[in-house]
Amino acid sequence: MTSPDKLIHLLLVDDLEENLLALEALLKRDGVACLKARSGDEALELLLVHDVALALVDVQMPGMDGFQLAEFMRGNANARHVPIIFVTAGSADQQRRFRGYEAGAVDFIQKPVETDILKSKANVFIELYRQRQEILSHRDELKAYAAALSFADRRKNDFIAMLGHELRNPVMAFRAGLQLLERQKDPEKNAQIHARMEVQAHHLSRLIEDLLD
Q: What is the pTM (predicted TM-score) of this model?
């Protein structure tokens, strides 16, 4: 069962409740929810809240008609990507079709609606929406992975810089100690230099163990 936050939403817009219920009965299924609006204003309010895979819009509605709603949707950043199928009981002459496609429609369906055709067309856009969501999800995962790699790379560079500094000091101390031992003939002072070199040797050994870890 699909969780509520992963439902795919279809927007149904018609001024007649019976038409909305008929469309919902045809299109609702597991993982798909239908948002119903009886006016263009209601549809725009729903689009502010929900991401929609497809809008089925009645052309002839009082107030804001389907063409005007489509034009508003195309002017809205959140809704301009939503594919629109116009559902019309009137004749779909060339002038009406031109206006519809100009407003952003992808298709026209005549009333009474043919069930198989409607389901087939809706399935295409539902699947396209699923694929787009998967791509966005993978993109976000890749961005997070890239950020993690970048952070790890910075940590690595910081560690190498610190390690170079920490290793350089005992190595330089060894070299200085060897030079002193070559020139120094006093056994007591040689013992002191030797003890200090042992401390540096222990420190260097610990750094190497940390590096291996």
A: 0.59
pLDDT tens across 28-69, in order? 888 999 999 999 999 999 999 899 999 999 988 888 989 899
Q: How far apart are CA 164 and CA 178, in angstroms?
A: 21
Q: Which two tokens stand for residue 34?
A: 């239908």
CA dihedral sign, ordered 4, 81, 44, 87:
negative
Rounded CA-CA distance 50/136 in Å is 17
- Write out pLDDT tens, residues 109-125: 888 888 888 999 999 99
Residues 6+ apart with CB under 8 A from 19: 58
Q: Which residues pair with 67 in a beta bridge?
A: none
For residue 37, what is the enclosing H or E element? strand 32-37
Instruction: Give the strands of the sheet with 32-37, arranged side by side.
Output: 32-37, 8-13, 52-58, 84-88, 105-110
